[in-house]
Amino acid sequence: MRGYHDIGGDPAGPVPKTELDWVGWEKRVEAIRNLLGDSTRRVISLDELRRGFESFGAEKYKKLSFYRRRIEAMIDILEEKGVLTRAELDAKVEGMFPPEAAG
Amino acid sequence: MVESDFGQSGAQSSGKVFTVQEAIVVETEAGNAEASRLTAALQSLLVEKGLLFPNEVEQEIEKLDAPGVHLGARLVARAWVDERFKERLLADGKSAAAEFGMKIGEAQLIVVENTVREHNLIVCTLCSCYPRSLLGQPPTWYISKSYRARAVREPRDVLSEFGLDVPSDVRVRVHDSNADMRYLVLPLRPLGSEDLDEEALSRLVTRDSLIGAGLALAPPT
Fold first, then answer.
1. How open is the CA angle B179-B185-B189, to the nearest 5 degrees?
2. Which of B31, B46, B62, B108 lies in disulfide reach of B51, CB 3.0 to 4.6 Å?
3. Where are chain A's structural domains?
4. Ramachandran region of residue B161, left (φ > 0), alpha (ψ -120 to 50) or beta?
């Protein structure tokens, strides 16, 4: 079966000439993935990361930006491996960035 | 690798209107803020769990920022002036890069040579494979859905949108990268660059010329 990420040859519009800056959190996502995949840790390989976002389902895959796909896939895999849970991560976000302060 | 002689029908033939947001999902301000919080929390949790050391991520970010077009340009300039180096580069990109102390960590590096008869273009249809340890991050358009989809079917049209019209007697070869094989284009040495030294030559090598989306610059007059 052809996956939704397998788009080579599909009809598509003009190539957007946009060159977006690589923003802080995106670099951080890439750095964390590199470290988790290095030879001392081997927690998430690049192939596992791809399997992660290639298992999102087409809707979610299409909706997320490139680096958002990567962090979401990373979290899925860490959860799958029992390293952390979404609930734990959500609590961490709440703890570090209380909604009152953000509001 | 895909030959370019597919039908010329493309985006327009389906009658569908394609939006930029479909080609590349751009984060909103709120999306960026949310993702930043999530990333910071993930990092902090992984430090707590002993999987990452504090400060390690910052050091890794510095490493990510270090490579750039200048590295690819050095390889190309050397290949232009040194035939034997060029042979080594085309035979085994990774080892040739290692001669300059450049470490290609992610995969094999296959260098493809542009000639007067053949133009090479690089894409990754499945995702975003790119010689990152040599060139840094790919440009936004490289990871766009429209580039990934169209580069293999209508490369001449895509190149033409980039301002490069490849003559019909020049064959276009498209290379689809993957996790194990990354590509780099060895662009044609520009006419009139005979008197330039390696350093000056390297300044003619642009990022796009290393992907095949452009040509090396003409020498300054």
1. 170
2. B46
3. 24-102
4. alpha
Longest dimension (CA), chain B: 61
Measured between CA atoms, the residue of chain B closest to residue A82 is B49
Binary contact (A34, B64; C-beta < 8 A): yes
Contact predicate A55/A14, CB 8 Å? no
Cβ contact A65:B25 at 8 Å:
yes
Quote the pTM value.
0.84
Beta carbons of B25 and A24 less than 8 Å apart: no
Over the stretch B77-122, which tens digit does the pLDDT of each residue have?
999 999 999 999 999 999 999 999 999 877 899 999 999 999 999 9
Q: What is the ipTM of this complex?
A: 0.91
Name the CATH topology of B67-211. Nitrile Hydratase; Chain A (3.90.330)
Q: Residues in chain B, how many?
A: 221
Is residue A8 within 8 A of residue B125, CB to CB? The reply is yes
A66 chain-B contacts, CB cut-off 8 A: 24-25, 128, 143
- List the domain boundaries for chain B: 13-63, 67-211
What's chain B's Rg over C-alpha atoms? 20
**What pairing do the DSSP bridges indicate for beta strands B171-176 and B2-3?**
antiparallel
Give me the total of CB pairs closer than 8 Å, taking one residue from chain A and one from chain B: 175
